[in-house]
Amino acid sequence: MIDAVILVGGKGSRLGYLTKNTPKPLLKINDQIFLDTLIAKLIKYNFNKIYLLCSYKKEQFFKLYNNKIIHNSKIICIDEGLAKGTGGALFKLKKIIKKDFLLINGDTFFDINISKLLENKFQNNICTMALTSNRDHKKNVKINNIEINKSNEIQFTKNSSKLMNGGIYFFKRKILNFIIKKNCSLENDILKNLIIKKKIHGIVFKEKFIDIGSYKSIKFLKKNKDFLKQKAIFLDRDGVINQLKKNDYIKNYNEFKFLPGVIDGIKYINEKNYLLIIITNQACIGKLIITEKKLNLMHIKMKKNIKLKNNGHIDDIYYSPYYKYSNNIKYRSDEFDRKPNPGMLIKAIKKWNINTKKSIFIGDSLTDHQSSKKMRIEFYYKTNSKLISQLKRII
After folding, report:
1. Does the active-site annotation cover 248?
2. Which of 37, 91, 269, 294 is the most buried (most CB within 10 A)?
3. Per the structure, how many domains does the chain have?
4. How far apart, in whole angstroms, are the C-alpha atoms of residue 56 and residue 24?
C-alpha cells in the first residue's frame, strides 16, 4: 500500500488564544484531539506509513505520535524546520516518498471514501483532487472559482463557482519535482499552474466538510458532537458470518463456511460507507483448543477470500479469548471483553471514533444483544434470510 501525508505545520493564527500553546490539529474538540479524528478515518485504508509534516509546536506531535503504530499504519513525524507553507513543507518528502501518495490538510475534515481517489482512473495527470461545495465557504481563496469538464479536468472559471478544493489529494510522486526549498503555497503557487496545464483532475464529493480554522467552526463542532464521528456495522462471527459447528468450535479454515449472502453483504456495508467490525467471543483459545496464531491465520484467509470474491473488506476484528477456568492464567483476565460485557465494543468505538447512534449490531445470541444494549447500539438478531437481504432492509 502507498503512504499518506498530513500537513500539520500551521499555527492557526485565526484562532487566537486557542492555538497559543496548542497547534490547531491538536485542539481537543469534545474530548477528542482533532488529528486523532483524521487518523481514525485514514487507518481503514491500511497505509504503510502516515507522515506528519510538523513545524509549529512540533515537539507536541513527536511526543504523541512519532513511531506509534495505529491499526496497520506507522506514524512518523517529520520536522520541516521553520514553517514553509503548504508547498515548501513537502520538500522533506523528496528523499522519503518513493511512490505515489495521499496528502490531506491537518485542519479540515472531509468525510469521503478515499478509495475513489486512490483508484486513479485518470491518465497523464499529476494529481486527483477531492472537491466540495463552495456554498458555505465563500471566503475560501485556496483554489475556488473552479469547475470540471467532461474529462474531469479541473479548470478555472470567471463565473461564480459552486466548487472548491476539499484539501485531500492523490499525488503522483512526480509532484515532488515541482517542490523547492522555500516558503510557498501548494495551492496558489504550484497547483494553480498545473491546473492551467490540465494536469489535475477532480472528483466532486457531497459528503460533509469542515475547516476548523475559525471560532465559528469550533463552536459548530462542539454543538454538533457527532459530526466528526464514523458509523459502523458490528457483526458477530459464528452464526452471522459463518455456519455454526454443532457442539464444537471452528478450529481451522477448512471448517469455515460462509453463510448465504455474507460476502455480498460485506460489500454492501462497504459501499454504504459504514465501518465493518467483527465482535466475537472465542473461548476456544482460553480452553486451549486452538491458539491465537491459528485464529488470526483463519481471519487472514477469511478476509482474503472476501477480497477475492468481490473486493469487499472487513475493517477490524475484535475477539475475546477469555475462559475463566483456563489452564493458561492470561486467558482468565479479560472478562470485561467477553460478551455480554461491552469491552470489545468500547475499544472499537474509541479507536475508530464511532457514532453509536448511527451504528448497528447484528448478532445471533442473547449475549450479543446484551453487549449492544449496554453501549446503546441498535441491535438486530440475524434472520434466516441472506445477510445481504437483511442489511438492505435496515440500512
Report:
1. no
2. 269
3. 2
4. 9
CA distance 110 to 205: 9
Q: Give the domain-ending residue among 223, 245, 271.
A: 223
Residue 211 catalytic?
no
Q: What is the DSSP letter of 367?
A: H
Candidate list 3, 100, 238, 337, residue with the active-site label: 238
For residues 133 and 153, state if they share a domain: yes
**Overall pTM surpassing 0.85 (yes/no):** yes
Q: Give me the domain span that covers residue 200.
A: 3-223
Alpha carbon 383 to chain centroid, angstroms: 30
- The whole-angstrom separation of Cα 41 and Cα 111 is 8
Q: How do 3-7 and 101-105 pair as beta strands?
A: parallel
**Identified catalytic residue from 236, 264, 316, 368:** 236
CATH number of the domain within which 342 lies: 3.40.50.1000
Counts of helices then strands in the chain (DSSP H, E): 12, 19
Residue 204 shares a structural domain with residue 237: no
